[in-house]
Design goal:
Layout lengths: L3 E6 L8 H9 L10 E7 L6 E7 L8 H5 L5 E3 L6 E3 L9 H5 L6 E3 L4 E3 L5 H5 L5 H5 L5 E5 H4 L3 H4 L2 H4 L5 E4 L5 H8 L1
Parallel strand pairs: 1-9
Antiparallel strand pairs: 1-8, 2-3, 4-5, 6-7
Bound molecules: iron/sulfur cluster (3 copies).
The site of one iron/sulfur cluster has 11 residues, from α5.
Length: 186
């Protein structure tokens, strides 16, 4: 089985936030904690201003800083599908992963004194069901699958410090947003 990850087609995303909210609800996350976030930006480039959106969760990086910096091995790469997973029972709540992830993906749970993050809805996928966020996207802007088929390009778009983790997320940028998206990441 190849490395799995998200594909986000920015030109299809309406910024509805459904992916973000269904994830939060189904994972029973407390106030302020999100495994997926949708951000909106205004592009003023050229003669065609517009608004574009970006939906990002954990990028299940190929060189994950969270794994490298966890002192107890609670963050690890799944051997089957290459996603980055978290063992709640091993986590000591030190937040080393929170500090080392360039994308703000790990969420510290004050109520549990552990960190948690997007697992790509591992249990659902084991049953042949798509991740909650993918199911929730009526625009079909989000998909999850084999990165050998979709490729990875977030690392190429992102600025150098962020791309050091080789994020396994493919972002199909909408044409008018592309240059502003890069400006924002820089
Ligand atoms: S996005 Fe952050 S938490 Fe997710 S694999 Fe990459 S470094 Fe780890
Ligand atoms: S795959 Fe699951 S846990 Fe990850 S962002 Fe989507 S709904 Fe949330
Ligand atoms: S559910 Fe789909 S269209 Fe709505 S914000 Fe998320 S990715 Fe964009």
């Amino acid at each position: 089985m190849g490395k799995k990850g998200f594909h986000f087609n920015q030109s299809l995303c309406s910024g509805c936030h459904s992916c973000m909210m269904v994830c939060k609800e189904n994972h029973h996350l407390p106030e302020g904690a999100f495994f997926r976030r949708v951000s909106s930006f205004v592009s003023e480039n050229g003669s065609k201003p517009g608004v574009f959106h970006l939906s990002l969760a954990c990028n299940h990086c190929m060189d994950p800083a969270c794994v490298a910096n966890c002192p107890v091995g609670a963050m690890y790469v799944d051997e089957e599908d290459g996603t980055v997973q978290h063992d709640d029972s091993a986590c000591i709540g030190c937040q080393s992963c929170v500090k080392s992830c360039p994308y703000g993906a790990p969420q510290y749970r004050v109520d549990l004194n552990i960190t948690q993050k997007c697992d790509g809805c591992y249990d659902l996928r084991a049953k042949g069901i798509e991740p909650d966020c993918v199911q929730a996207c009526l625009m079909r802007a989000l998909t999850f699958g084999d990165m050998e088929e979709t490729g990875t390009n977030l690392g190429k778009v992102a600025c150098a410090p962020e791309s050091t983790t080789s994020p396994a997320t493919y972002v199909d940028e909408s044409a008018y947003a592309a240059s502003s998206f890069r400006d924002w990441l820089m």
